[in-house]
Amino acid sequence: MTLKRPIQMCVFAFLQIILPIYLIYNSIANSYDTIFIFIVNNSLHILSMYFIFLSVYWENFNYYLRYIFFISVIICTGISLFRFEAKAVFSYKGVIEDIDAIILLPVFIVLVINIILSKHQKHKKIDIDLSFTFKEGKYLIAEGGDGKKSFFTNYHYKFKDHAKWKESMRYAVDIVKINSIGFTMDGIIPLNNEKYYIFKQEVYCPIDGIVYEVINNVENNIPYSGNYLRGIGNHVIIKKDNYFIILAHLEKNTVNLIKGQYINKGEYIGEIGNSGYSNRPHLHMQVIYNDGSNIWKGTGVQFTLNGKMPVKNMRICID
Question: Which one of 3.40.50.720, 3.50.50.60, 3.40.190.290, 2.70.70.10 gives the CATH number of domain 128-318?
Fold first, then answer.
């Protein structure tokens, strides 16, 4: 996403700190007059926290907070169940007083199901398997899944600035590096690229193929400045049959490949930067199938990394 830093900080402080604490508090502090309203409200607390657990960009604060908050809501709901004393099953007065919760509950049911379906497609034939592009460390999938099914797991497909090429973006993936205690950067959304753990990480070729396109001269952006060049910045596109594998937002002058050369899986490609339409250092990956001349008018295809479908908030650990 391309929100400026102050907006980003406010939005995610609300989603990742304030709202979870509010849900935890409500799970244990509220009292209810009927069994029906108790079930509705506590189901809403759990489902809305689960929605946050699945869909929020936990890279901005701490990855493991999602587990702490979600488990806390479950525990507090359990405690409130033991303290629950109402004997009435249902009342119209309770329905009127809690109509907002009654309306929101099915909304969150649909949202959560939508996210789960976008992340799990074991029935679908996988078009192509790639080896992971890094050789050591822990990494986090910041965007990933079927963007056509859910904006909340993969914004690429439905993002307005991608409208012209959205079909090619359906399964696009963004990757950041995470440390052992759940942080992806030093500080909270720093303005220095060097503070992001993935910056200048070496990228390696995920498949045997032909170098189809190379760009290597684009300057880095200041993180979350809002001033980003259009396009994918420094990048390499590898062609395998009619599949085009895109590795984007690389560091300037770190790619030493030539268009048309053959490259083997595992060969060095370049380093992670923050070039092009990018708000912070990360690796953008996508695979497009196209038998024509303009690859961006092709079809985005589902791929796996080391045999696993990359989905939002999934960790990948490389020994």
Answer: 2.70.70.10
Task: List the one residue out of 136, 131, 137, 142 whose CA is nearest residue 281.
Answer: 142
The whole model's pTM is what? 0.92
**Domain range summary for the chain, segments of one domain joined by +:** 5-119, 128-318
- pLDDT tens digits for the chain (319 residues)? 566 677 888 888 999 999 999 999 999 988 888 999 999 999 999 999 999 999 999 999 999 999 999 999 999 999 998 888 877 888 888 788 889 999 999 999 999 999 988 887 654 566 799 999 999 999 999 999 999 999 999 999 998 887 788 899 999 999 999 999 999 999 989 999 999 999 999 999 999 999 999 999 999 999 988 888 889 999 999 999 999 999 999 999 999 999 999 999 999 999 999 999 999 999 999 999 998 778 999 999 999 999 999 999 999 999 7
**Virtual torsion, Cα 293, 298, 303, 309, nearest 10 deg:** 150
**Both tokens assigned to 139:** 């990494």
Instruction: Decide: helix, strand or coil at residue 177.
Output: strand
